[in-house]
Structure formats: structure tokens, C-alpha cells
């Protein structure tokens, strides 16, 4: 098989093999369960129960009475009033509601995750550290999740630490996984054949793992994920980690990437359009990965429900579920470690004195590159408007998820198995939403911006429905306005339906506004806006809960948070944005 000469020292120019693709898919299968099952369901309620069960926890309504009865032990079809009462603990001299404790933990973890993601992105795209860092972060995150098992209420702050460590490492590991995608596409035999380089089949260099078992596993993983690939032309995603985030290296743009400026090795983002064969292949691979990840999440959710049912749904049951999630993450990381090649990236340019770059240079490069992108984005009115709207939309998506789970647990007294079933409902409805929105948009001939506005308006119904619980007539009726447990399931379906539309069409619309040749850097800004926004909403909800002693008042904040992006998105002019982007691209080229 013929391959081109390396464009830089250490470049691996071998064609992408099934072995590598299996490694890519396997890590999605491993790690996606953490964000969907862990962060989306069990970590928030476990943190709340750990704090509630601590010796220092007292009733918010009467500080002389401890929270003696543990929420899980008292919960069931006839959960008693005590299980639904709000509890507080003192942390650093401040009174913190046990539900707020989980929200603050999430805010801190997202802030640190965003900082780590930006800081290490230079190492993800350059040098030989890509695979080593991926496996290291995966092991640290999975082990931290497993360490929930021995945590007792007396050490509830340790549970918060493990949640932060696991979320930070998950985010960092997925950035590193995303950085593999453009490399896998660039060296894919189909791409090399189109560029005039002879290639054999994708089976190249699979000898050591080929055979009936390997071929069955590879085909099976592709089959179970195919639903995600056929859902729409723009390939929507349904999670904290959009599959399109893997279309580009997180932070790569000129001038550092100029070392790749040849026909064969030009920065991937600058070399294709949305409709190009390379982009379609990238979308196909990334969507397979996301589909596989969501299938794993559904499997683990069902296993978690079985664990909860068989062990009595105690606090130990929740910790055992988190241990299982961490074990799943770790176990399926091992095949990824075996199958993925290191695939070193181009080195950063040497210093003026000719010395190689140090680790500090990699760290500084990432922040400088992000800063340059922000300065460019300020020149584009419509991208600025869009990113502001996306900041609020993304924050709303993350905040509603955590708030709803904790509200269902503390205010409605729902059992852990019932909470897990809500998450399954959300996941399945997000798949349906991915099909539905593309079909509805075609039938009604909606522009992407109109589809986004429709999704936001539908999303707004969730907090507004919760606020109906303040209407006296509805209060007396005893149903609707989130007064009964069954109401969480249709709302979960609405949330999933909206999630499928927003994640896909926001990504698609943003792509229309990017200056040609700067896709990687601007998608990096998009990803950082997504991750960084989730710091604020949960913190505000936590503060409201602390101030009022109840989560329901936070629905007022959520209604505003979700509603504000509507007028902002309305003023985004896609055609004007395209013209400004083209003008900036010409200016950058000189």
C-alpha cells in the first residue's frame, strides 16, 4: 500500500483501519454513560442524599430538628411528608440547601472543566500526547466515579470532590477523542483514494484483531448506531457532547497550524465545505460514535433500574449504580487504549532560538488562539448575537435538566428508579426529536432560525408549566403544575424533543456564519461557549433554592433564561452574517 511522505516528524500516515474506528466507537460506548446516566441522573440525587443524610443536616423549616429519616428509606408509593421536606447543611459557615449543594457542585465542575479543556487543547492537536492524555483522563474520571461507593453521608463533601474530578476528566477526555476524528478522516482509505493515492480496503492492518468476532463486533456497533446517522442532513446531536464537536480539533488555526499548509496536510477544517465528501465521512463517523454512546446509556440506565429494584433503592444502591457506571467507563476504555493509534499531531513551531516548545508553550498557545478567535468574532455582528443566544440556550438546557431531577426527587418524592426512567424517556424522545424536527422543517419549509425559535418556544413551556403550580385553582385540584409524579414523564419527553432540535439546528446555523478557513477556531469558541455557560444557571438555581427553601421558585428564573434568547435569535440575519464572514475571510487572507 502506498502512503505519502510524512509532512512533519513523527506523523503516522498509515491509512485508517477498522481497528482504529472500533477504538473510536468503543470510547464513546464507554464514556457517554457517564454524562447521560451519571451527570444526568444519579450524581445529583446521590449528592443530595449524601448531604441530607449527614449528621449536620437539619430541616430548613426548623433547625432544631435533624433530617433523621433518610429520603430514600422513606420514599415509595406513599412517601411521607418528612421525605419531601427541604434540608440544609452548613458549608464554610454558610447554610446550603441539600439540593443547592448538588447544583453548586455541578457549576464548579463545569467551570473547571472549561478551563482544563481550553488549557490542554494545544496538547490535543499538537505533539505526541493525544492518546496518552485521553487514556489518563479516562482512567482518572472513571476511578473517581467508582470511588462514590465507599462515600458515606459523613463524608458528603468527598462525594462532591469525586463529582468534580469525574466531570472535569470526562470533558477533557472527550476533547481528546474529538481531536482524533479529523485525523481518522484525513487518512481514511476513501479520502486517500479521492486524492489520488492508491489504497487498499479499510481492513488494512487489522490482521492482529481480525476474525469473526472482530467483524461481528464492528458491524454490530455500526448497526445499533445507524439511527443517528440517517436522522438529518445536518446530523443533529442530543447530548452535553454534540457529535459535531468532533468534526474539528478543538483549538487549531493559523499561524501555529501553518506547519500543515500543504495540499496533503492542510488544516482539515479549512479544506472542505459542509457538503464535501470529507465532511460527510466525518459526520458519518462522529454520528456513529454518538449513536453507540446513547445505546450504551440506555443499556446502563436499564441496568441501573434493575440494581435499584434488587437492592431496595437505598443510598448504597445509588452509590453502587455510580460504581457500575465508573466500571463500565473504565472497562470499555481498555479496548480503546488497545485499538487507537497515538497519531501524533504536528509540533508547535520551535522558539526563535531553535529550541523545542515546552509544556508551558502548549498551554499558552491554547489561550492565545482562543483570544484571537474572540477578537475576530467581535467583528461579526451576527455571530456575536448568535453566541450570546447560544450561551443562554445552552445554560438553559443544562440547568433545566439538573433542576428537574432534583425537583422530582425533593419536591415530588420520586424514587431513584422512577428518576432513572425519566432519563430513559428523555433519551428516547431526543432520538424521536432528531427525526421529527428535520421532517417538520422540510414540510413547513422553515429556515433553521425559525426552527430554533420554535424549539425555544416549546422549551419555554417546561418552566411555565411548573409555574402553574402557583395558581390557586390548580393547587386545589392537586394535579398539573408539577404536583404529581406522573407529570415528569411527558415533560421529560418534551425536553428530549427540544434537545434534539436545538443541538442540531444551532450547530447548523452557526456553521453558516463562520468565515471560510476558520472553522476549527470558531467551532472551538462554540464549544467553549457551550461548556462555560453551564456555570451560571445551576449556581443561580442553587442560590434561589437557598434563599426560598424550595426549588419551585427557580422556575421563574428558568422561564426568563429560556425566553431571553428569543428576541436575540430573531435579530440574527444569516445572509448578512454570511457576507460579513466572507469579507473577514478575505481580510484575513490579505
UniProtKB/TrEMBL annotation:
**Under what name is this protein listed?**
Autophagy-related protein
Chief subcellular location equals: membrane
- Show the stretches that span the lipid bilayer: 21-43, 101-120, 132-149, 161-185, 288-308, 320-340, 385-408, 414-440, 452-471, 491-510, 522-541, 553-572
Keyword hit for Kinase: no
Membrane-topology annotation of the record: Multi-pass membrane protein
Which keywords does this chain's UniProt record carry? Amino-acid transport, Autophagy, Membrane, Transmembrane, Transmembrane helix, Transport, Vacuole
Q: What does this protein do?
A: Vacuolar effluxer which mediate the efflux of amino acids resulting from autophagic degradation. The release of autophagic amino acids allows the maintenance of protein synthesis and viability during nitrogen starvation.
Where it sits in the cell: the answer is: Vacuole membrane
